[in-house]
């Protein structure tokens, strides 16, 4: 009963909160404009603008619905939902401007811009908060489908992380089924927003009935690399005999680095590869990167000077730290950071994973925790070595050990921020989190870059 109530509430919760955010943002913009006397004074009173704000909020709900912002479709770290929210809110205000133009309504451009920005920020913040508390609500109200993952290999572990990154799917991985006796006690950890979650191998094929009954399993997800039809049929028939559903991952996890689209031709499903990187996207992204980096360097120049002073007063040595990193196509470049470690620390040692690392200076602990040490990489963006958004660049000695699979991340320009920074898996090596880089490579777009950038700004103080 609790689960049904929560599922119903969750369906209407998002639209209600979106409506409140947009309506409240419009009222806030009106009051700021009215009381500060910005631009030309408006000709209508508070009661009229309340009606207009109600209309704007309803238009936003419509465009958000059209943009599929209320879909439960899976995404990595909520970026698909945020991307759809950005599209929906932007479309709502364009539609609102068109309506007021044709109706010859007297509206201030300052007020409309403020309402748009407030709406976008508030809706994204609320959606992000809901994303992080959703797993706890699912657990509290027992609303999740309980699943076993068959196979604890690379694909099985990646599937586990992807499910945990998609709480609105209401799926709870309970454990693994694994036939390799050497992995009998294998466990997989996944660091969430502020928590650590792990599941372990619960049994093998012969123990499936016991595991299903003991853990009240609803479905089995088969995640075995190179599985043949005969083995899949055996697993599927066994699952059906136990009264649980079964799903499987096709052998395409490493086959493509681009987006895939399923095309149905009669009774045959066809997989089509869609390139996500049109030339105009690369060109406009480069211009946007350069412009944004230049603006931020000028705007943040007082902060640059202040941080440099603190670093100099704290310890001896240079303010900036230059480090060889591998960029697009395997090309080496010098990456800049504010120095956060003592000068005698090994340049190519493994990066600190805790704030108490003895190599980190007093000021270094602060700037690493707030990610301020990354700001000089804006210079790398100006030079074209890096982008604002993209996979993080790795050190040469690590790239030398890359497999062909890992080298896929070298096909795009590295970035200051990306999906990896938004994840709870920042404690693990960059190349150990290919899920995030592959997702970005396959789905690059302006709206995805903007979604990542907005979420980075919200959680800018979640560094090590």
Topology of this protein?
Elements: H1 2-36, H2 46-66, H3 79-102, H4 109-140, E1 145-150, H5 154-164, E2 171-177, E3 187-191, E4 196-203, H6 208-214, E5 219-222, H7 229-241, E6 245-248, E7 259-265, E8 268-274, H8 279-299, H9 301-314, E9 320-326, E10 332-338, H10 362-369, H11 377-383, E11 387-389, H12 396-399, E12 415-417, H13 419-422, H14 434-442, H15 446-458
Parallel strand pairs: 1-2, 1-5, 2-4, 5-6, 11-12
Antiparallel strand pairs: 3-4, 7-8, 9-10
Helix pairs in contact: 1-2, 1-4, 2-3, 3-4, 3-15, 8-11
Please provide a written account of the structure.
It is a single chain. It is built from 15 helices and 12 strands. With 464 residues, the chain is of the alpha/beta class. The chain folds into 3 domains: 2-140, no CATH class; 145-253, NAD(P)-binding Rossmann-like Domain (Rossmann fold, 3-Layer(aba) Sandwich), CATH 3.40.50.720; 279-458, no CATH class. Helix 1 packs across helix 2, helix 2 (46-66) crosses helix 3 (79-102) and helix 8 packs across helix 11. The two termini are 42 Å apart. The model has no long low-confidence stretch (mean pLDDT 81).
